[in-house]
Write a structure and sequence with these properties.
Strand order of the largest sheet: 4-1-6-5
Number of helices: 3
Order of helices and strands: EEEEHEEEHH
Strand content: 35-45%
Largest sheet: 4 strands, mixed
Distance between the termini: 38 Å
CATH class: Alpha Beta
Shape: globular
Structural class: alpha+beta
Number of domains: 1
CATH architecture: Alpha-Beta Complex
Length: about 140
């Protein structure tokens, strides 16, 4: 089996009372869901470098501070590919203008700063909800 290493950011605002969610196309299910920023680690990058790059590429935030690694999980695709995801708590500047990009296969259509309780209710995937719960316990 092949392994794809990825990073995911739970982006809190400065007061750490809001979390940034993005509405992104899920290629597998061909539907838009509320998600956290996530992407692959390129060769030669550290996890932290990859996370900052992914945050910039997907939503345009440049003023971010990585707080702490929170969690790890894996998921599988039927094509013999394991996705290993490292989840980080991040602080972002909520006053910074977002530039929602995504990519051609997974465009981002919307973003919201929401309180963590609401975020947990609208995030689509259980592993993202688990990471958020852990981040809230450790960061707030």
């Amino acid at each position: 089996m092949r392994v794809r290493k990825e990073v995911q950011g739970i982006i809190f605002n400065e007061k750490r009372n809001k979390v940034l969610l993005i509405k992104k196309l899920d290629r597998k299910f061909r539907n838009y869901y509320w998600r956290l920023v996530k992407g692959g680690i390129e060769e030669g990058e550290t996890e932290e470098e990859a996370l900052k790059r992914e945050i910039f590429e997907e939503i345009g935030l440049t003023r971010v501070k990585i707080l702490k690694k929170i969690h790890e999980y894996e998921y599988y695709f039927p094509n013999d590919l394991i996705h290993h995801v490292s989840v980080y708590a991040v602080e972002g500047d909520s006053r910074e203008k977002l530039d929602l990009k995504g990519d051609d296969n997974s465009p981002i259509t919307e973003s919201r700063w929401v309180d963590p309780e609401k975020a947990e209710k609208i995030l689509e995937y259980e592993e993202e909800r688990n990471g958020l719960r852990l981040a809230v316990k450790e960061i707030i």
